[in-house]
Amino acid sequence: MNYQEAYAKLEVADQLHVLKYYEELSECEKEALLTQVEATDFSVIEACKKENIAVEKGVISPLAAMELTEIAAKKEFFEEIGVKAIQNGKVGAVLLAGGMGTRLGSDDPKGMYNIGLTKEVFIFQRLIENLMDVVRATSTYIHLFIMTSDKNDEATRKFLAEKNYFGYNPEFIHFFMQEMAPATDYEGHVYMESKSQISTSPNGNGGWFVSLKVAGLLDFIHAEGIEWINIFAVDNVLQRIADPVFVGATIDAKASVGSKVVRKNAPDEKVGVMCLEDGKPSIVEYYELTDEMMNAKDEKGDPAYNFGVILNYLFSVNALENMFAGDMPVHVVEKKIPYINEAGELVKPETPNGYKFEGLVLDMIHQLDTCLPFEVVRNKEFAPIKNKTGVDSVESARALCLENGIEL
Ligand code: UTP
Question: Within 6 Å (CB) of ligand 1, which residues are found?
Fold first, then answer.
């Protein structure tokens, strides 16, 4: 793209300030900026102009989860199905590690965070150790696809290689990068990261399947005969990955997706809750829950919207491929965005200063026909690390690890 073309594109998008320093740039920087302008989809920014308009929800009704007692009664049956699927190479796993982890406040990829107390225990290590439990139990390595972003790809690959993939067979590890989206101030003007670079951030975890495809890995998945993909967040250090019982239950239910859920610990707990929306599986965010829904009861007298999602889903590859009919919604998220100020100096803000634009996995669920919410024991499988201290933090996750006999 040449300067005139870039100018025209930015003028339409109301982002001409991107070219403010153009004349000061070296030839190489000029070219890099023009290439970035060409590659950037500014249309996502429209979403922040609609920010205060509540997303239209359809008719919400409860979606029953498979609860612990039922799972316990059929454990062996499900496990056998799951183990067989894993041993037949039908199960892969995707680690969503493209996020910036801004709340944790480390410049390194979140997985490199050391939660150890007396020895090093990295977040990535915990996840791989959890997956290794299944590898050992089934005598089968599971293909692990790791999604990174432009911001952390190099550091992630380097770290895992240096650590010998924490004992995982590298032939079964595949990296791919997600797409980026521009980040803006509260008026929807993109921030500049440097004089020749628009501030960007990863475009949310909802882009994982498209990015996997773009990277050519869907062809690999077909070639390997993988039929189920367990996607999971980088920050839950206790979660079971490719858990044979969960795999078996989802296959047995013939669901398009299985979703691990935990029983909410309070009606107003801040987790997304599984439900049906216009008869299709969906997730209501905590801020969308009405009082009526919070107090609704099922036929057993239990809360009707009682199970929160933990970002651990088992998707049918077939269902995913038939799914992408329309555009996914863009979510506007308030975050801390580094930028250059009027003087051209880089500022790293202490508090949120603008918007990032993200697609979310939970919107994929609503595009599928059937979902099995599968209950797991909260204290055994849910230790998310979002913050340094307090709720969902390094501290709370450490306590849960110790409670589960994991040495730190
Ligand atoms: P979070 O919603 O916690 O976002 O991600 P984050 O960017 O990691 O952290 P904060 O909000 O800045 O503190 C949940 C999961 O989705 C992944 C994260 O890596 C994490 O596993 N994710 C998030 C991506 O893979 N890509 C993204 O663009 C965003």
Answer: 96-104, 110, 147, 178, 202-205, 233-235, 311, 358, 386
